[in-house]
């Protein structure tokens, strides 16, 4: 969603800049320009665009090469995760414990009267639900890989809205390595850097730390009025078990440098997309110049094409500047 | 197998979690009781953390420099920044720009926050004294953050026993 928003902003900015450039070039075009001058300008612009296109294509090929390299490295590693780290039994066991935690905290949230407490429990429910959905996606993938029919073990507990989210996430796993993204998502929800004894609402806290916080609260309540006696033990046990499993998987992910590789592949993917759009622009403009303007340019049409030529030449200068800025940005990543 | 000190500290801090004051204070305020239970929880957590840190980092001394090291490591692991002001044989002071009370809801009055600030800091001090076996450590906190200031000053001093 954010990516679409960014693309829309980028496209809007590009359109506005092009429009302003067009107006400026139109207004500031020279009063008199000869046919030869205009032809030279057009040929130079075409050559500039061609050179830029060459550089961009090289960049695109390089980024694509890096993307494929990372993709095959991740794809090689992913089956191992489903076989060992996230075996059917483990996913089912994690899923069941998360379901237990989710149901328990739904009840606790309903019973809580203090806003802060209620919001903590609701946060736990939301995060546990997200982990359940991701676990269901992994379960489905593994069942398919092993040739078993689809199990509704985790999916059957979902409401219609949640099921849609599950379906969407399941469809997003198109390549083998996408599964690692799902596993990392599960680990990221569970564990996050520790924060001071406060959980700032604006910051993303880990489910594990939220659970520990809630255990502290339940312990305190137990000492005050025995209202939460019995609940805490179950939560503590489920939390410890999930922590054991997810902690091990998180460690393995870090050992295999999966978070870094995923972040690199994401960057390469974004860069590849940008290069692609740039290539389109730099193919379209010389095409326009060569096929539409140059053949029509003659002594008689010089006056008519004067402004258009100013625009294309200004665009080629902008293209060079833009490319230099872009290269500078890439080098600084 | 958790081998590195960093890993062991991470596990230690996961094991000894501080109670979430921004949630607990409104609950206790509504219940009108439970401060003693909170004190006990805070004390147990602090003692567990200090003891574990000393073991992991191999800190056997009972002086203020050791205290400063533990304080620094703890703050770093909680992602909390502090500004060192002074460190000598008899005095260790730091400036803190963020504290748990800053995240307690706006509905909770300054007086209540001040009371719980005292409760948290005094329990921390008791835990320090007991863990270091030093009765002559004193600590003062100016509560500047609660009063609207930008930085709270925390001073630990080693006083001569009478």
Protein architecture, described:
The complex is a heterodimer of chains A (333) and B (162). Chain A has 333 residues and is an all-alpha fold. Chain A folds into two domains: 106 residues; 171 residues. Chain A is built from ten helices and no strands. In chain A, helix 3 packs antiparallel against helix 4. The longest helix of chain A has 51 residues. The radius of gyration of chain A is 29 Å and the shape is elongated. About 2% of the residues of chain A have low confidence. With 162 residues, chain B is α+β, with helices and mostly antiparallel strands. Chain B has a single domain, classed as Trafficking protein particle complex subunit 3 (Muramoyl-pentapeptide Carboxypeptidase, domain 2), CATH 3.30.1380. Chain B contains five helices and four strands; from the N terminus they run ααααββαββ. In chain B, strands 1-2-4-3 form a four-stranded antiparallel β-sheet, covered by helices on one side. In chain B, a hairpin with a 3-residue loop joins strand 1 and strand 2. In chain B, helix 1 packs antiparallel against helix 3 and helix 3 packs across helix 5. The longest helix of chain B is centred in the first third of the chain and has 23 residues. The model of chain B has no long low-confidence stretch (mean pLDDT 87). At the A-B interface, helix 4 and helix 7 of A face helix 1, helix 2 and helix 3 of B.
